[in-house]
From TrEMBL, chain A:
Chief location of this protein within or outside the cell: cytoplasm
A cellular component annotation (GO) from this entry: cytoplasm
Rab3GAP catalytic subunit conserved domain: residues covered: 528-691
The protein's name in its UniProt record: Rab3 GTPase-activating protein catalytic subunit
One Gene Ontology term of the molecular function aspect: GTPase activator activity
InterPro entries to which the protein is assigned, alphabetical: Rab3GAP1, Rab3GAP1_conserved
Family indicated by similarity: Belongs to the Rab3-GAP catalytic subunit family.
Lineage: Eukaryota, Viridiplantae, Streptophyta, Embryophyta, Tracheophyta
TrEMBL record, chain B:
SUPFAM superfamilies reported for this sequence: P-loop containing nucleoside triphosphate hydrolases (SSF52540)
Main localisation: membrane
Official protein name in the record: Ras-related protein RABC1
GO terms for cellular component: plasma membrane
Species whose genome carries this gene: Sesamum alatum
Coiled coil: none
InterPro entries in alphabetical order: P-loop_NTPase, Rab, Small_GTP-bd, Small_GTPase
């Protein structure tokens, strides 16, 4: 079988490489045929060179940037083998420094490119030594046949031992042999110490009979010690938020009980406790060139502090959850994903109540996800929303991102936004849980309305912000209506005592803008025929009566929510061009103003009103009057009276609609007018809206508001000055705004396309959320040297971002983050601070055995590369070009890598054959 | 968005435009001049007025819904709601009255920041009443400088002589047509999958806000 097989291969070879002449190997032994096969492949690889191999079928080694491999398979006897050639495409000649990440074999033997041949079995290892050396010699023969200088390695024994043997032909006279092995337990005490390792190395080239302590052998070596910051929260790990979210708010409570979490004072901690994505740090301290002459030198070095090392590198140990974005880790993103799911289901029923009574809904989906937390949880949420409101409400616009308004949600501190955030964590955020919470929420809102209790977390003044979602606008409207009702009740009480002062109390702030001076009104306001005046209007005087003009108290322009505006717009569009629009509402407002003005200034004429209301339609003859108006009342008498001037042309036109309204207006103070906004009617309308809201309308607004509020919450995180993070957050808002704008438009019932977009948005949100958690964690760990936090974050950001920004759920997450950050000498003390001396309790647990303690912590890993260089001259051999050998070459190299309970040794010996 | 709900086949896009500025600068006259080719000395607007005009610009049939607001301070809280969803905002001043020009930056630009819900909306600065050249107190250069600072279009026109009136609206509409996000709003509810497009760039280009 193997004969025919190899024949075919030979034929193939002949076809491919006609310039290479091959003999007929059919008579050769299978061993020889095996060698020739290897040889053929090696020739092919040699001929191709790295560049061509890259084009062909080389694959990159996962975590190593600069290493590629190609492979080929063979059969010999009954076994098949796989040969791999590792190479670096950029041949910079210099051997890689161990600052960088190297392939294990490169590190062990100080080689660059190499071959590995191994049997294809489950374990991938040649089990017995004879077979291994036979295999190796086959490769060695093949390589020397094609005068190839690549080192070749064969694995031996059990794979966990990482044992190799290898050989390299180094030109005509030198051969390097390699051998590596590993002790997994019970490392001899001697080999735990630098002294013993030194002696081990020396024993490889010195005569066995020599007493080590008496002789001096100059040995060069490099040392790398790795320390890991101690972790104290091993036990906490077990209590990480489990994926079962039911009643998660309870979970959080129990977790935080008695134990401080790393993120206790972070803005998201009200909602969930996040895993610290920075598990700890590894500190690498490097000594690059040390020379030792005796065991004593080594013993001395073992007492050296890592502070004396040449270089320090810091490497963050990041949680593997950082790269996972499937929503398995709990956070805003995972809950938003559930909310989107609820949105998807929301169109299945017509009324919110339908989702509560499971029996009525036919959907299986509903039943399976129907988890509602117990009433105690519900009570607590409502209590938090309605009763535990801090009196001083911070100006939420300060804590919001500037792009926050472009998302049609509600401001972070507002009632509806807080409702949405609670809903995210209520039960498993299923549509049923949401429905239960909403119904109770509306019931509570109705209670506030019925009892005229102020609506918490909502302003009672200002105009309705139409950039927010409709529910928020409605709640704002309701808050204003409740406030008006409360004032009415109060006003009636006061009014019975003193009917004259009550209107002044009512709405002082409204027309303040017209008043230039305070306190002056006293003298003039006492007159009985004057009613509903707030203040004098500057120093203006009435045209006909030589009296000070008073600015009236006016009614607020009626508040309107978005849907009310739209009603008006639709009416206007329907009427179109044919009709001069100026709607009834505007006329009502103007008429109300005129009535109030007449009441406040009984002797006023139309011109007076215009001078106050639309000053630009009064043309003064004397342009200086405006300057005088700043003066106080004492100078009033000096003002020229009557002021000479006239109405503007357009205002004095015949049939001017303003004059018509003026003529019809009765003098009535604002307090006695028919209100422009009827709080009782508008308030009931709001409640009707809330109580009859369609499920998908609720969910659409909740999705928008929840995204916005979650982002605003995270935005409050302090993470120092990280530009990438700031930009990324800005981009998140833009993405959210452009995705969410498809919701809440009237013509949609959310289709699958929108839902799909929202899912991607959740993924994107999850990435940003994790980056923020990472940034916050780094920021608080490096408060003293923010530049380190910035540098490490920047590395992580560059590493993780390519997988994140696109919104693709799974990228190539196999690569491990390996970027180390060099620590400048002035930051070393800070790093040492991260290694607090272990407590007595901790130190007895471990037997310290390796030396080089850092604040009482021993390294978790010690790596040493010993090397011995010899001056080699070609005098022993009559080489054709003796100059070639007039150089130092590394005759012995030993790589030692050990922890406190295992040891790995790899030896490379160059010899003259 | 909401304006597209009444989409009819008679036009490709519906745009909402808004006119603001001090009282008496000629907003209503400008609008009348544009929509009905006439000039009258109109009564001051009470609150807000509204006109529709169908135009064809760049091969597209457009329906323009133009809202004309009153300049009086008293109406300002009322008119603030009309900023919402406007794709274009026309700021008008009177070249013969300096205060109407300074009020644009003191008052009106702030109103836009406060009430406009559309970050991409196009703003246009219009100096009206250029027919009264002899009484001019605001130079063209000042107008241009202001427009540059606020990132808006600029034109001087006269509602009375109808100089530049057509161009004023046309230029604004052309600019809206060039802005994809505004175009998407104006067209009849066409949805786009934003993730299939390029990811949004950082908001470096919002010079107007």
């Amino acid at each position: 079988m193997s004969t025919s097989n190899s024949k075919r291969i030979v034929e193939d070879e002949e076809e491919e490489e006609e310039f290479e002449h091959f003999d007929d190997f059919t008579l050769a032994s299978s061993w020889e045929r095996f060698i020739s096969e290897i040889e053929a492949v090696c020739r092919q690889w040699l001929a191709d060179g790295p560049k061509n191999l890259l084009v062909k079928d080389a694959v990159q080694i996962n975590h190593l940037k600069d290493l590629y491999k190609v492979k080929s398979e063979f059969k010999y006897a009954t076994r098949s083998y796989c040969m791999e050639y590792y190479f670096a495409p950029s041949n910079d000649g210099k051997g890689a420094d161990w600052d960088q990440t190297l392939h294990d074999l490169q590190l062990c033997f100080g080689v660059k490119e190499f071959l590995v041949i191994a049997p294809q079995s489950a374990s991938g290892v040649v089990l017995d030594a004879p077979e291994a050396s036979k295999l190796l010699s086959a490769v060695a023969i093949a390589l020397s046949n094609c005068s190839c200088l690549w080192p070749a390695f064969v694995p031996v024994h059990d794979p966990s031992r990482k044992a190799y043997i290898g050989i390299q032909n180094m030109g005509t006279v030198f051969t390097r042999r390699f051998e590596a092995d590993h002790i997994g337990s019970q490392v001899p005490i001697k080999l735990m110490h630098l002294e013993g390792l030194y002696e081990l190395f020396v024993s490889k080239f010195a005569y066995t009979a020599v007493d080590w302590s008496m002789h001096h052998f100059e040995v060069h070596f490099k040392l790398k010690l790795t320390y890991r910051t101690p972790t104290y929260d091993d036990e906490d790990e077990l209590q990480e938020p489990d994926t079962d979210v039911i009643g998660s708010s309870e979970n959080i409570e129990t977790q935080t009980h008695g134990k401080t979490q790393w993120d206790d004072d972070c803005p998201w901690s009200k909602w969930y406790s996040a895993e610290d994505l920075v598990k700890g740090f590894e500190l690498l301290s490097l000594w690059s060139e040390i020379t030792a002459e005796s065991s004593l030198d080594m013993a001395e070095l073992e007492n050296a502090s890592p502070l004396e090392a040449d270089k320090w590198f810091l490497y963050p140990c990041l949680s593997e959850n950082l790269a996972i974005s499937d929503g398995s880790t709990i956070g805003f993103a995972s809950q938003l994903r559930l909310l989107v799911k609820a949105l998807e289901m929301s169109s299945e029923a017509k009324f919110i109540e339908d989702f509560v009574s499971v029996e009525n809904s036919g959907s299986e989906n509903l039943k399976s996800s129907a988890v509602v937390p117990p009433p105690t949880v519900l009570d607590r949420v409502l209590k938090d929303l309605f009763h535990e409101v801090t009196e001083a409400q911070p100006d939420s616009s300060l804590s919001e991102h500037k792009s926050s308004r472009s998302i049609k949600g509600a401001p972070l501190e507002s009632l509806f936004a807080q409702f949405c955030l609670h809903a995210l964590w209520f039960g498993n955020c299923s549509i049923r849980a949401i429905a239960v919470l909403w119904i109770e929420f509306v019931r509570e809102v109705r209670w506030c309305w019925e009892e005229s209790q102020p609506l918490p977390r909502m302003p009672t003044n200002g105009t309705i912000d139409l950039s927010t979602c409709l529910i928020n606008q409605k709640l704002h409207m309701l808050a204003v209506c409740i406030d008006k009702r409360r004032r009415e009740v109060k006003g009636q009480n006061v009014g019975t005592n003193n009917p004259l002062t009550s209107p002044v109390q009512e709405d002082l702030q409204v027309s303040m803008e017209f008043s230039a001076s305070h306190g002056v009104s006293e003298g003039f306001g006492r007159k009985h025929d004057r009613n509903g005046s707030s203040d004098v209007a500057g120093s203006m005087m009435l045209l006909k009566s030589h009296k000070i003009m008073h600015a009236p108290i006016t009614q607020d322009p009626p508040l309107m929510t978005e849907d009310m505006h739209e009603e008006r717009l639709r009416a206007a569009v329907a009427l179109g061009d044919s009709f001069s629009f100026s709607g009834q509402l505007e006329r009502d407002i103007l008429a109300s103003d005129m009535s109030a003005f007449k009441a406040a200034n009984p002797e006023a004429v139309f011109e007076d009103f215009i001078r106050w209301h639309s000053p630009k339609d009064w043309e003064n003859d004397d342009s200086e009057e405006t300057g005088v108006s700043q003066n106080n009342a004492m100078e009033v008498s000096e003002i020229k009276w009557p002021p000479s001037g006239r109405l503007s042309e357009r205002m004095s036109d015949y049939g001017n609609s303003w004059r018509k309204i003026w003529n019809e207006a009765l003098p009535l103070p604002a307090s006695q007018q028919k209100p422009l906004l009827d709080p009782n009617r508008e308030g009931e309308k709001v409640l009707h809206y809330l109580e009859t809201l369609r499920p998908y309308q609720l969910l659409e607004q909740m999705v928008c508001t929840a995204f916005r509020a979650a982002a605003d919450t995270l935005y409050q995180t302090s993470f120092g000055d990280l530009k990438q993070m700031t930009t990324k957050i800005g981009q998140l808002y833009v993405t959210m705004a452009s995705t969410l704008k498809f919701l809440q438009s009237h013509n949609t019932i959310s289709d699958s396309d929108v839902i799909e977009d929202l899912r991607r948005l959740c993924t994107t949100f999850g990435h940003i959320e994790k980056l923020i958690l990472l940034a916050a964690s780094l920021h608080r760990k490096f408060l003293q040297s923010p530049h380190l936090a910035e540098a490490i974050f920047s590395d992580c950001y560059d590493y993780y971002l390519p997988n994140m920004g696109t919104g693709s759920a799974k990228g190539d997450t196999k690569k491990e983050f390996d970027k180390k950050q060099q620590v400048s000498s002035r930051d070393r003390n800070l790093i040492i601070g991260m290694f607090p001396p272990p407590t007595a309790n901790q130190s007895w647990r471990k037997v310290l055995s390796m030396g080089n303690l850092l604040n009482g912590h021993e390294p978790i890993l010690r790596e040493i590369i010993f090397s011995k260089r010899d001056h080699v001259s070609g005098s022993y051999y009559s080489a054709p070009t003796p100059n070639l050998y007039q150089q130092d070459i590394e005759t012995y190299r030993m790589y030692v890598c050990g922890t406190s309970n295992d040891l790995r040794v790899a030896l490379a010996v160059t010899s003259f054959d | 968005m909401e304006s597209s709900s009444g989409a009819q086949p008679e036009f490709d896009y519906l745009f909402k435009l808004l006119m603001i500025g001090d009282s008496g600068v000629g907003k209503s006259s400008l609008l009348l001049s544009f929509t009905s080719d006439t000039f009258e000395d109109l009564s001051p607007t009470i609150g807000v007025d509204f006109k529709v005009k169908h135009v064809t610009v760049g091969g597209k049939k457009l329906k323009l819904a133009i809202w004309d607001t009153a300049g009086q301070e008293r109406f300002r809280t009322l008119t603030s709601s009309y900023y919402r969803g406007a794709q274009g905002i026309i700021m008008v001043y009177d070249v013969t009255r300096r205060d109407t020009f300074t009020n644009l930056s003191d008052i009106w630009a702030k109103e836009i920041d406060l009430y406009s819900t559309n970050q991409d909306c196009i703003k246009m600065l219009v100096g009206n009443k250029v027919d009264k050249e002899s009484e001019r107190t605001v130079s063209k250069k000042e107008g241009i400088d202001f427009a540059r600072e606020y990132g808006c279009l600029f034109i001087e026109c006269s509602a009375k002589t109808r100089v530049n009136v057509e161009q004023c609206f046309e230029e604004l509409v052309l600019k809206i047509l060039e802005t994809p996000s505004l175009l998407a709003e104006g067209s009849a509810g066409v949805k786009k999958n934003i993730f299939k497009q390029k990811p949004p760039e950082s908001d470096a280009s919002t010079s107007c806000c």
